Every structure is written in C-alpha cells, then in structure tokens.
Amino acid sequence: MYERIKKASRHTNQSEGLIFEKSSPGKRAFELPPLDVPAADPAKALGANHRRAGIEGFPEVSEIEVLRHFTRLSTWNYAIDLGMYPLGSCTMKYNPRVNEFVARLEGIATEHPYQPQELSQGCLKILRLLEKCLLEITGMDAITLQPAAGAHGEMTGLLLIRAYLQKQGNPRKKVLIPDSAHGTNPATAVIAGYEVENIKSESHGQIDVEKLRDLVTGDVAALMITNPSTLGIFEQRIPEIAEILHAKGALLYMDGANMNALAGVTRPGDLGVDVMHLNLHKTFSTPHGGGGPGAGPVAMKKILEPFRPVPILVEKEGGRLALEPVRPDSIGKVKAFAGNFGVLVRALAYILAYGPGVRQATEDAVLNANYIRKQLEGVYELPYSLPSMHEVVFSDALQKKNGVNTMDIAKRLIDYGFHPYTTAFPLIVAGAMMIEPTESESKEECDMFIDAMKAIAEEAATNPEIVKTAPHTTRVRRLDEVGAARKPVLRWKPAVPRSEAAD
Amino acid sequence: MRYLPKSPAERQEMLAAIGAKSIDELFSSIPERFRLREALKIPGPYSEAEVIQYFKERAAENSNGYTSFLGAGVYNHLRSVVTDAIIQRGEFLTSYTPYQAEITQGTLQAIFEFQTLMCQLTGQEVANASMYDGSTATTEAVLMAERLTSRQRVLVARSVHPEYREVLKTYAKNSGLRVEEIPFTAGGTMDSKALQAALKDDVAAVVVQSPNFFGVIESYAPLADVTHAAGAMLVVAIAEGVSLGLVKPPAEADIVAMEGQSFGLAPSYGGPFAGVIASRDKFVRQMPGRLAGQTTDSEGQRGFVLTLATREQHIRREKATSNICTNQALCALAATVHLTLLGKEGLREMAEQNLAKAQFALSELLKIPGVRRTFDAPFFNEFTIELPRSVKIVNSDLLRERIIGPLALGTAYPELTKRALVCVTETTTRAEIERFAGALKRALERPI
Fold this sequence. Notes:
The complex is a heterodimer of chains A (503) and B (448). Chain A is of the alpha/beta class and 503 residues long. Chain A has helices spanning 42-46, 63-74, 97-103, 121-138, 150-167, 184-191, 209-215, 238-247, 268-271, 341-354, 358-376, 397-400, 406-415, 443-462, 464-468, 481-486, 498-502; strands spanning 142-144, 174-178, 195-199, 220-226, 251-256, 275-278, 298-300, 312-315, 321-324, 392-395, 422-423, 432-435. Chain A has three domains: 12-74, no CATH class; 99-356, Aspartate Aminotransferase, domain 2 (3-Layer(aba) Sandwich); 358-486, Aspartate Aminotransferase, domain 1 (Alpha-Beta Complex). By secondary structure, chain B is of the alpha/beta class.
C-alpha cells in the first residue's frame, strides 16, 4: 500500500532505509584539508600487490543525509532521557550530561596512553582519586581500574583468586555459583579455567548455608555471590558464608552489579568479601549507549594486591604519580592501555557531584523499589517475601491462568510508554518480572508505572488478547526472532541488478 | 541533590504508603553492625561548575600544546563534529542493550550497518558488534580458532602489538592454550621460514598484524597458504583501520580482529575504543559477541533483532562462546557515523594523506645525519627509524621543544634499542613534520 503513495501518507522519517540504499556515487559528507606535502603514489609506496582498488558498497552520501539518517534512527529508540527504564539488574539511572562534557575536554579526550607520564599527571590524578573513592565505597584495600566491563571484571577477579591460590601451591578446581546468578558468572569461571558447580537456593531465595558447608571442599577456589541477590534480597548470612569459605582456604567473590542498593549504606569489604567488581555503567551512571562501553573495576583485599594486572598506579616522591609496568606476581594485562579511561572520567564526575551524598541516591533507589512493591503486591505474585532492596521480582503466575506471560506484559508496558522490566530472569523464578526503578524516578513517574502495571493486570483478566499481541503503538510489531536465527542475514548486500538476476 | 527528583515531603509520603517509619527500616535486612554510621570520606558534593573546574584543572596538567608523533595502536585522526552530535543524542546515549527490539530499532539498525561496514572494510562475510578493544578482539579470535580446530597451539608474530600479545597470554594461561612467538625478519615482517618450521598439525591459529607494530605491511597470501596447509586458521589483527582505505583487506584470513579507534574515536588515554571480530559465514556460530540480524515483523515490515543468542552467556551460561556482555556499542555507533561521513572517497583520501605524510616525514628524517630506516618493507603511516643515540635522551630533548617524540621500541623489544616508531597522520602538518626534523637534528647534534 505504501509503495503507491510515497510521501503523503508515510514520510521516510517513518521508514528510513539502510544508509547503503541512499548511496549515490560522487556524494560526500566529509572533506579533508588540502594535502600540504607531495602526494605519494600508492602503487609505488605500497607495492601493487598491497594496493586496494576501492571499497565495494561503501556509502556515498552527503552530510545532511547522514545527520538525518541517524537522527531518524534515534527516534525509534526508547531511552532513559524519555522515561523510566525499570530493567532489573541493569540500573538504568540518569546519565548526567556534565559527565559527557568533561570526558570530551581538550586535555582529557585528547591524551595518548604512551605520552610521557610527566605530561599525564592530570589523567593519573583522575585515576588515583577514582581508586580512592571506590575503595572508600567498597571498604576494600586495593583496586584495578583496567577491566572494560562487568564480565571482564569478573574474569580479572577470578584470575586474581587463581593466582593467589596457585602461589600457595594449588589453584583448585571449582567455582561455586548460585542458581540465581547472572549468566556471565558461569561463563567467566570457565574462561578462568574453573569447573562450575551450581548451588540451589533455599526456599527464600537465599544461599543455602547448610548445603554450602558441605559443598566447600579443598577443591573449591571461590564462591561467586551477588549481593543483594538477583531477587533484590540482601544475603543476610554473608559474613557466615565468608567464614565457611575462609575456613577451607577458599575466597568470596562478590558480583557488584547490585551495588546501587549498598553504596554509602554498607561496605562489602566489611562483610567479608575478598574481591568484587563494580559496574561503573550501572551504579556510577556512565551511559549504557545501547550496550556499552562500560568499566568493571575490581576491588580486593590486601592478600590479592600483588596479583593485580599491570600497569600499577603508584605514588612517587613529591606526590608524582606513575604507572609501573612490572610486578612479578601480576596476572598480566587484561586489556591494552589503562582501561576505559573515558568511562572512568564519567564515573568520577558522578561521584564528585554526590560526594558522601551517594547514600541518599541508594536510599531513594530502595525507597522507589519498595513503593512499587507495596502498590503491586497482590496485583502480581511475589514469589519471595523477604524485604526488597533496590529491585523487586514479581512473577506472572496470576496472569498465566489467562495465557498471559511475563513477556506479553513487558511488551504491553511499551504501549503505556515504559521500557519493559527484565523478563524471565532470575532463572529460579518461573515467569520472572524483575523491576529496578533506580533513584532517578520521581514519585509521579513511579505512580504512572504502577497505574500501567495495574491496567495491564486488568487487561490480562478481561482482554488477554490485547496483551498477548502487544505492542500496538510501535513502528514495528513483534519481530520474527526465530526466522532471524534460522536464516541469519547479518549484513546488507547490494541488490542483484534485474538483468543479471534474469540470467 | 540536583539529580534526585524527590522532595522531602514526597519521600515521607512514599514511606507512609509503604508503612515504614523511617528509611532505615527499609535497610533492616542488613545486620546492624555492618551498617555505616558515618559519612563516606569522599570529596563533594560538587556543583556542576565545580565538577567542570576539577576536570579542567586536571586537563591542564596533561599534554596541551604539544605536537605528538605517537601511534602504536592509538591514532590521532580527524573527527567530524557531526559524529559527536549524533552519539550524544539521548536516544542513543541513554538506551540499553537492544533486547526489546520494538523500541530499539534505531540501535539495532545502526549495529546492522556497522556489521556491514566492517565486512566491507575487512573483506570478510560477517562481523560482530563489538569486543572491548583490539587486544581482547585478537584474544577472542584466537579462542574462536581454538574452538573451531580443537587445537591448542598458537603461533603469534612478535611484530603483533606487544599489549595484544600480553592480553592473549593472560587469557591463555588458564585455558590450556600454548602461545609461541614467531620472530620477524630484517625487513620487519613475520619470518615465514620460522613460521613454517613451527607449523605442525597441532596449531590452531597463526596470528599476524598488518600494518604490524613496526608499521610494516604483511603479505597475507603466502601466510594463508602455509597456515591452511597445516589445517590452522589465519588470524589477522588490524590496529590501524584507516589503512584499509588503501591497503588490500585480509580476504585470505579466517578471522580478522580489528581495533576501531581510528574510526572517529578520541585517543582518550587508551579507551573506550571498539574491538571487532570479522570472519566467514560458516564460522558464525563460534563467534563471540552480539550480532544484529535482519528479519520481519508480524506485518511483514523489515526490522532488526539481536540474533544467534544461543552463543551467548545469558542463554548458554558456562557453555557460551565468551563471557562478554556489556561491549562498546556507543563506540561502534560513533565508528558507523564516522565511516558513513567519510564514505568511499573520504576514507580513501584520508588513507592517501596518511601515506603521503608518512613518506614525506621519512624522507625529511633520513636527511638528518645518523638517522637510518630500520625495515625496508612497505609501510602505511608508521615507520621505524634508528637513531645514533638513545631514544629516551632524544625524546627528553624534544619535549623541551614541545614535541612528544616517537615511541622507543627498546622497552618492548630489547633487540631494537635506539629504534623509534614514528607515526604521522593526516592531522600532522608539513610544518610540524619540518619542526620535528629540525628539533631531532639539533638533539642529535647536541654533545652528550
């Protein structure tokens, strides 16, 4: 239908094609200053066999087309800047714009990692202050800022544990992981050379401490725990858990994905945790950017310090800072250069804006989650009744009776103007609906979300079809994911000209 | 606090609705003795102006006003202001991983375009979006080859970026991989005789970088032949992507691991950048990282989704191809916008300028008595020179003239003392090159 009426009923800003489809030879969107040295003949300089003719299919468009293309695409996205993004476990909080501004400053964004350290004191001071702040918040003794993301931090943490145990003569074989853990935990343990042993949660969703006592043998290197757990519940027996592990020479790793429930209120270091990572793109407000970049600093107790990835930031005489490249017991490098520096800058800007007031952010995050829990209890089933911290996990048990599941409810939320909550995770809750509002939501926004969730529950009972076929208001409807995986189309290819196709 | 959208009265109202007397009550599950009673000892709270002031002061303690001849994996290229305008749009900046496809079509289509651009650049059939950087992309490419060949020996050219090799060794230590290094020839390329001697039927991958760490361009075709004859996979690392505007892509490679920093990303003291893995369609199910695929919605319209998720940790847990979750998506978007702006002609022209300036710089430097070219193989925008005295001493002389001199190779390669890696891009002016040559001449003339 739309093919016939090209513009009047449907402008391209509603159905923007691929940039490659707008390409026309000779158009360009970027001009370089004129070359101020003699031109080089590529065939002579590179050798004819190294020389490339041209890049087939590469776009040729003008500047306004590029700007419009990506601006149009952007309007098809939901974002924190548009409204509440209650994805449990993801901590989608406000990303302050001043963080973006300072990360782009001349003298910050422009610095080369190999420039002399006497010309990098500003960068190194930023790293130093961030280290100090994160150590104060976590209650740990030492830290590395090198890992690029949470999973990368997990790997670094497990390699630290492995190096420490190896130094004592035996790296051990197994890492224990609760069944409520993020998928990155088991995937990471394998990369660090460990077997995974899953621990079933007890009936309240907490670690089964009695069972743990039996499982911790001389083969166990560590337990990876998420606290608060992915149910949003604080692991109350964590000091005891740490003792059990320590008694057998094993260590306690904490996944810090849920640190937004704890910052300024309690410190993992005080709870007996030996090593943990932080997700700066969660707790410390650096933008998710559609999937990254992040940063996953790893904080640790003194015993693990000698094994940190190189280079190590050290303070020399007169307060001069330096990156030292060699440490005999280091696990080595986990990433080139000094970590995702630009992300670290943003996180420090966030911390400085709050100062000790990060506690208020934590309190508001927990307040929002509990407020939503209270208002939706009974409307949706609450599988675990222990107190919630920064997020609350409901299930679709009540709506399932009408054939409506968590994914349907999530998709229907889109019609009400919200991003869905996290669906189907944690795995120990059938039909999980994991809601994390963060501190960035006003009472008004929380109330609108609650109204939407109540309205959907009502629809699930009276008109389940409207929920099951949601969303109804988006540019595209539910997409065929099975088809996408069965016959993957992962890049654009030029259409075969009609004459050739006929041959 | 300006980021928090609640008044004290609203907080009280919400507490009352919950039925809690105080905010403390909501934290009752944390044992009393572990609850912090004192304020954290961190600086702040700072107003917006104070935050900016703090970082401006730090910026002033860095390298402002210096001209740099450093490359070595991080390159200074022209960046259009349009790229930043796009990636700072909140709809891109503050959106999550596009798991809910109906409301993240913008990110998904942009990822699909990124994958396409990476395939076009590298001459491969499929590209992911994205890995952390060139170093972890190279490592993950090797792990992918290990899965595909079920072999555990890896031969890595010593001319691969030293930090990439270090990261590979860190990962290899615990996965049973045995990493061996292949020396380079007097020409600066991978020693093919040494490679042939080391290639046995237990080798999973041969890793080579081009242009390599010395700036030298490797010849893929003969490497691919001997590698494939042994049943191993050829992994090509690319640290300087702009070279692909002029240099033949590694079409013979089985897996390409690329650093995308050169495509519109600021040096930013080493990150965040964007790593990419590109490969053959037939290997896609062993590929790590996210992939966007084209599909249709229930009304038949074209749309995009994240696909082949059964490779990934959130589905496969300990059986996943990698543990990567958060990646470098916004950096990949910046690269997409940047490459779209440059386009076919712009990228070629940028590459030509790099080549011309590097050729000019080399000829200027070779006029200085005692300066010699180290490797005679073709190069792109970096080359290695030998100085008659320590690079460190020379560089400290150059600093006095506000020039950050070339990288001393002796730190990573003890056999290459007195050798320096010079990088010149389209951003380096003729006047800067001439000033550098003059300063270097004076430094070498200065009596020790």
